[in-house]
Queue: 2 jobs
Job 1
Amino acid sequence: MKSLATAASAPSATPAERGVPLSAGIRKYVHRHFDLVVGAATLIAFFLAWQFARPLGIPGLSAVEPPTKVVAASWDLLSSATFWTACYKSVLRILAGFALAQIIGVPIGLMMATNRMAFHTIFPVTEILRPIPPVAWIPVAIIFWPTREMSTVFIVFLGAFWIVLLNTIGGASTIDESYRRAALSLGSNRWHLFRYIVLPATMPSIVTGMVVGMGISWEMVVAAEMIASDTGLGYLLWQSFEINAGAQVIVCMLAIGIAGFVSSALIGRVGRLLTPWQGRR
Amino acid sequence: MAAPTSLPGPGSGPAGARPAARWIAFFQAMLGISIFFLSWFLLVDVFAVWRFAQLPKLSVSLREMFSPDPTFGVSVFTKEYYDHLQASAGRVVFAFLIAVSAGVVIGILSGWNRWFRAVCQPLLELARPIPVLAWIPLVILVMPSRESAVIALTFLAAFFITILNTMLGVRSIDEVYFRAAQSLGFSRWAILRHVVIPGALPFIFVGLQIAMAACWFSLVASEIVSGTAGLGYKVWEAYYYVQFETMVIMILTLGICGYISSAIIRRLGAYLMRWRGKTLGGVA
């Protein structure tokens, strides 16, 4: 897969260049850390273009506050209690919705995967409900749940639920039949089958569902807070937009991005603890 | 996937060898769906227990949906319904097609060409962890009109997913195929046509299905906050004016649209990847 460009773009130092150790050294460094060097150059170019978008008149980018203002705004925002309260609220909602999705989704998924009757009865219903974008449930959630807090958590739950369910079913339905037969012929009962065959075989895809579900949870919390709440990072983001604080909008976006990234990484860690027999993925 | 006898799953569906099993599965499906609608009917229409009393009734919603003269002005017989449907579907198709063509090209190039990857990767990695919906305010600021902002947000949702999956697809291709093709004297174009594209196609199509769902999802959110027409916009407007039956109609329509669009992609994928045959039990 290494393309022809590799060979052409970074040849090893030619004899003529050996006389100039510095440039040869740079060439060698660029050759070895190609991705790093080119990537850094791209990022620098991007930030420069962003910073000077207004004087240069770059369309689109010039509507965005320059990085220096974003840094200043992030300093203000990070030292305010509003921001940290918003973070705390969002994280709590994520935790609640995500945990509910696991607690309800995994058992239903396992039941559907191990019981033919349950699968053929429940799966068609999920096929009807699943294509509805979770965001469209927001008004229904507001009508149904007594508090806004509950409807936000419900929306987060719903976003993660389908992924968790599908991954659990998918994992449990790929189990090799011979394992089951081997276990049965060695005298396993139903519990043993579940505990030593179904659960370990399904765990990796449950973990995958958790990681993807966490990403969707953040999408959902942002949507629900923007549309139907008056606290949390999503609300702070929308409010910054409404009061025309362009730099603060970007700080909120980045904060949500970082929070999402960190929580996915944490879930990945937890996943590795749950499936220690899996090689490093 | 050989259909396991006691561990059924999405793969070992009603397409079993015995026609009897097919019928049983069909009746069970009907049973499940009936239980769902019956519980809606009983909880909301008949007993109106707890908060279910607030929700729109099944009978009223259905009557509204199929009434030629609906109470709140929207049913499958009114022009307004099709206007919203057309607005949303048009946006999704437009944004999805652009996102897919751009995403597949960028994904293949960055899975294949070192330079391209080195340039694109850092920018993508910077933007990708941010949830699409968190882009809404920024995109509204950047784009000249609300309509273009909604389309841009729908585009973004599919764009990142398509790039990522295409890249994974290209990098999943065994190095041996490239070497074989090169030693047989394939041109770069022939390698692209006969190795890269077919090799990445399964991943691309998995990506496209996720991307389509993401498109609808992002569309609804953007229409709610900044739209002037469309299914998502109408869901929110109906909620706002307490026309809950209209809301149900719109939500059901969104579900149907989502289902149909992902079914089309599944079919297209199955057609383009005929050579894969039954190796995966036809699940893909």
Job 2
Amino acid sequence: MTNNQRLVYIALLAAQAVIISLLERAIPFPFAVAPGAKLGLANIITCMALYTLSTKDAGKVVMIRITLATLLGGTISTFMYSGAGALLSFIGMWGVKKLGPSRISLIGVSVTGAILHNVGQLTIASWIAQTWTVLLYLPVLSFIGILSGIAIGIIANYLLNHVEKLQYYRSLQELNYTR
Amino acid sequence: MKEFFQMVKTWDIILIVLLILLSFLPFGIFTYQQAAQAGNDSTLVAVITVDNQETRRVPLTGNTETEVFDIVVSEHEKNTVEVDHEHIRIKSATCSDQVCVRTGAISKPGETIVCLPHKIVIEIQSTTNEPTDEEIIISS
């Protein structure tokens, strides 16, 4: 991958992620049981970035997504929530992916991302509300996080296996990794 | 479906189970704490705080009335709270996400309704009967 190709690819992924999170915000609340729960569709892009780019570049994709999604219709408090969630889930996903492809599949990576995103958000929420009982809400959110995480893992796996360019970038990335 | 089962690896399952257990951790600590301090005379009180400052305490145990009141944070930020017997809920709110309204009624100790845009927290606490005198002073 040349430098320009890499830059365009990062920008492309970030743009897709921003659009997905904006679309997701427009969907009115899919889960009646758990207020505040979201599908986390933008996690597809994070998964793809982790598997096709270096860690530094994947981090850039996540950062650009959070900043732009906030500028396009968020407030400073949503920025804090999604920022903390995204940071924690990115670190978790990166760590889990380190276990290697023979031990962990995309499902595990995306479920970890979904749950750690919830943990990060609720931690900030309980810090703002100054009562840690907000964390009691975690089991409900992580239950939904597991379901949507599995679905998103399957989607991302499908994309990685069937889109030709992604396959190519992934093999490039794995070559770099082993070298 | 077959493809799906081929995709799942052992560590996926281990991780998912670990994460489920982890998410129940705060719940476990909380019930442990509650069991330690639960006295015979404890009554439930809904404590309403706005921007970390306690504004109102509503005793819930033994309450048989229905009461509706407003919490006015500023001119355009208003939450309507309804106390119905031993349950409390936010009936309507002018906030953007409406998460507090969807949370519904709460009645058990430790449950919370949070309205983050208005920084309102309603928390149910269990207290012993003694400090009733102070509560009257605060709420008047």
